[in-house]
Write a structure and sequence with these properties.
Largest sheet: 5 strands, antiparallel
Order of helices and strands: EHEEEHEEEHH
Number of strands: 7
CATH architecture: 2-Layer Sandwich
CATH superfamily: 7,8-Dihydro-6-hydroxymethylpterin-pyrophosphokinase HPPK
Strand content: 15-25%
Distance between the termini: 68 Å
Radius of gyration: 17 Å
Length: 171
C-alpha cells in the first residue's frame, strides 16, 4: 500500500457570457443552458443564470440586430481549455460558423469570463476575460447574478465596476 496522497481538485466556478443576435435567440439560449447544465457538478442552486438583457450591437456592421445577452456561473471539473472546447462545440451546434469573425452577427457567442482563480494570458486564452470591464452587457448580468463577486486580479466587485462604467459613459 502506498502512503502517497493524490489531490483531486473539486469543481471550479466558471463564468460564461452568452450572446446572440441571429435566429431565435431565446431558443438558442435555452438549448445552450441545457448543454451547460450537463457539465455542472454542483447542486442545482449553484447553477446561476442572470436575467436576459437586450443590448445594441457594439462595434458591429451597420444595421446589425440587437443582441440578447446573459451570464451563467456553474461548477465544473473541466480545465479552462477543455471548457473552451466545449463552449465552441455548443456554438457550432447552434449554427455558429467558422471563421469566427469578431463583432459580426452570430447565432451564439459563448465567452469564458473566469475559471476559478486562474489568471492566464496565452495565445488561446486570457483569464479573466480581458474585455469584461469594458462591457456593460457582461458586467450588468454578472453584477445582477453575483454583485459582490471579485474576479482574480480585480480590486472591486462586479457591481462597483458596473457603476464605474456607467458613470464614465455619462461624462
Amino acid at each position: 500500500m502506498s502512503d502517497h496522497h493524490f489531490y483531486f481538485p473539486g469543481p471550479t466556478q466558471a463564468g460564461i457570457a452568452l450572446g446572440s443576435n441571429l435566429g431565435d435567440s431565446n431558443l438558442i439560449f435555452s438549448k445552450a443552458i441545457t448543454r451547460l447544465q450537463e457539465i455542472h457538478l454542483g447542486p442545482p442552486s449553484t447553477f446561476l443564470v442572470s436575467s436576459l438583457y437586450k443590448t445594441a450591437p457594439l462595434n458591429c456592421p451597420p444595421n446589425s440586430p440587437d443582441f440578447l445577452n446573459a451570464v451563467i456561473q456553474l461548477e465544473t471539473s473541466l480545465s479552462s481549455y477543455d471548457l473552451i472546447g466545449f463552449l465552441q462545440k455548443i456554438e457550432a451546434e447552434a449554427g455558429r460558423t467558422l471563421p469566427r469573425i469578431q463583432n459580426t452577427p452570430r447565432t451564439l457567442d459563448l465567452d469564458l469570463l473566469y475559471h476559478g482563480t486562474n489568471i492566464l494570458t496565452t495565445d488561446l486564452l486570457t483569464l479573466p476575460h480581458p474585455r469584461v470591464l469594458e462591457r456593460e452587457f457582461v458586467l450588468g448580468p454578472l453584477s445582477e447574478m453575483v454583485p459582490h463577486f471579485i474576479l482574480p486580479g480585480w480590486k472591486k466587485t462586479a457591481q462597483e465596476y458596473l457603476l464605474d462604467l456607467k458613470k464614465n459613459h455619462i461624462n
